[in-house]
């Protein structure tokens, strides 16, 4: 499949266009010469984006898709686009009901993915590539203290969390549901009425389509915008609580994966290249233990507990991201301090 090269008549659809990552991607696409069609859930969001990108001479347009899980939601939107950057996630079924049944949490995530794939299958008349934003959560599994060091790669799946959903049902934890939802939306299994995910849908119809699929699996980092601290997306909430607030030792010695928003943005642009066709690619700069905060902040932010024991139990293989997409990851210092600056612009930084 040839790469999708920049030109004014080459249009990229970006779903969830008002998201934090999506806006960075849209700006990069426009700066490189692409035309952009973005989807949002309301007229107000469309107006905000129209004002923000007003200087790009009409090369950006905004379409309202109120419910991305609805069958046919993207039927008209996918027509005459050359590529899709799918970043939208359902507004329901996530942290709104963390103690609800697994199906209520997982099914919207799966339906939101399949909705755009089905529309692309039927109406993607010019489509060459779909880039789906998944998560490192679709890859990782728990690592026991007794295990030797583990290196996860793109062949791994977070199946232990899916199995936990099967066992626990409505008693499943938020972590079980969140990680399982990422797994199932990307791959699919016969569980909770979920029989299809992105990959098996793609392979099932591969002989009848002219487009290919790329899935990017980023680590934790800011991936969307928000109105207030209470509406933080889960990934950003984890960062905020551990960096800017006092936490228990158990949380401070936990290990998290990080990646800078600019690196994720660059990867989404580079994923339009020919070499990325059909690939699943991890985007992860490294692991961070929050008890090490003083080493990173040099006193700039609230301090952790550097005396806690630290164990790096695993890491992610990042060769594909570097070799195929040319990603050069920023340091944790740069990532965390840039996030702090972002919070400060909102007036939410607590020192």
From TrEMBL:
Transmembrane segments: none annotated. The keyword Oxidoreductase applies. Residues 12-145 form the NAD-dependent epimerase/dehydratase domain. Keywords: Oxidoreductase. The keyword Oxidoreductase applies. Belongs to the NAD(P)-dependent epimerase/dehydratase family. Dihydroflavonol-4-reductase subfamily. This is NAD-dependent epimerase/dehydratase domain-containing protein. It comes from Psilocybe cyanescens. It comes from the Eukaryota. GO terms for molecular function: oxidoreductase activity, acting on the CH-OH group of donors, NAD or NADP as acceptor.
């Amino acid at each position: 499949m040839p790469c999708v090269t920049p030109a004014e008549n080459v249009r990229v659809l970006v779903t969830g266009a008002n998201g934090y990552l999506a806006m960075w991607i849209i700006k990069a696409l426009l700066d490189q010469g692409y035309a952009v069609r973005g989807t949002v859930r309301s007229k107000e969001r469309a107006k905000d984006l129209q004002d923000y990108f007003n200087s790009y001479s009409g090369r950006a347009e905004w379409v309202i898709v109120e419910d991305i899980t609805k069958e046919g939601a993207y039927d008209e939107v996918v027509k005459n686009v050359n590529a899709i950057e799918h970043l939208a996630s359902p507004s329901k079924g996530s942290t709104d009901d963390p103690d609800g049944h697994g199906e209520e949490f997982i099914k919207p995530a799966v339906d939101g993915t399949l909705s755009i794939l089905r529309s692309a299958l039927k109406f993607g008349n010019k489509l060459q590539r779909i880039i789906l934003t998944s998560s490192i959560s679709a890859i990782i599994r728990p690592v026991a203290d007794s295990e030797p060091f583990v290196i996860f790669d793109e062949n791994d799946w977070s199946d232990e969390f899916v199995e936990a959903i099967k066992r626990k049902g409505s008693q499943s934890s938020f972590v079980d549901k969140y990680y399982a939802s990422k797994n199932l939306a990307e791959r699919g299994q016969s569980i909770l009425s979920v029989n299809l995910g992105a990959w098996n849908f793609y392979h099932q119809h591969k002989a009848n389509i002219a487009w290919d699929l790329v899935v990017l699996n980023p680590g934790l980092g800011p991936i969307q915008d928000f109105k207030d601290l209470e509406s933080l997306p889960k990934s950003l909430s984890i960062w905020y609580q551990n960096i800017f607030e006092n936490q228990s030792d158990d949380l401070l010695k936990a290990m998290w994966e990080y990646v800078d928003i600019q690196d994720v943005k660059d990867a989404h642009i580079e994923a339009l290249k020919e070499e990325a066709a059909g690939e699943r690619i991890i985007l992860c700069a490294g692991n961070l233990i929050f008890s090490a905060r003083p080493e990173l902040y040099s006193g700039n932010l609230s301090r952790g507990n550097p005396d806690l024991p630290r164990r790096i139990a695993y890491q992610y293989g990042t060769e594909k991201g570097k070799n195929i997409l040319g990603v050069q990851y920023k340091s944790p210092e740069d990532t965390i301090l840039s996030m702090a600056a972002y919070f400060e612009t909102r007036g939410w930084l607590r020192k």
